[in-house]
From TrEMBL:
Residues 10-72 form the DUF202 domain. Coiled coil: none annotated. The chain crosses the membrane at residues 21-41, 47-66, 86-105. It is a multi-pass membrane protein. Its main location: membrane. One of its GO terms (cellular component) is endomembrane system. This is DUF202 domain-containing protein. Keywords: Membrane, Transmembrane, Transmembrane helix. InterPro entries: DUF202.
């Protein structure tokens, strides 16, 4: 194998698995946002419930934007590493979605 051949990377299915993981994460966030809206409107809308549901929807949109950006970045043969601030933002959105969803249940 020559040096030029070693520089080429065969990513295999790893980028596809990563794209699918991002899609599953955004789908889960969508389910949480929909359930939050349903919970907020069950028995009549209340101000805290509507605010929590709107916060869930906003967090989901933020997560969707981050995921879309990362999925597009994975389309190249040698994608760049996920920046720490993007990873932190994705984790923050996911945890905040879970907290808002839990707050609406209790």
């Amino acid at each position: 194998m020559t040096r030029g051949q070693a520089a080429e990377r065969d990513p295999g299915l790893q980028p596809e698995r990563t794209r699918l993981a991002w899609r599953r994460t955004t789908l889960t966030g969508a389910v949480i946002a929909v359930l939050a809206a349903k919970s907020a409107l069950h028995g009549g809308p209340s101000a805290p419930g509507v605010v929590a549901a709107a916060l869930c929807a906003g967090l989901w949109l933020g997560l969707l934007g981050l995921a879309h950006r990362r999925i597009n970045a994975l389309a190249v043969p040698r994608p760049t590493a996920l920046a720490p601030h993007v990873a932190a933002a994705a984790v923050l959105c996911t945890v905040a979605l879970a907290v808002c969803g839990a707050a609406l249940v209790f």
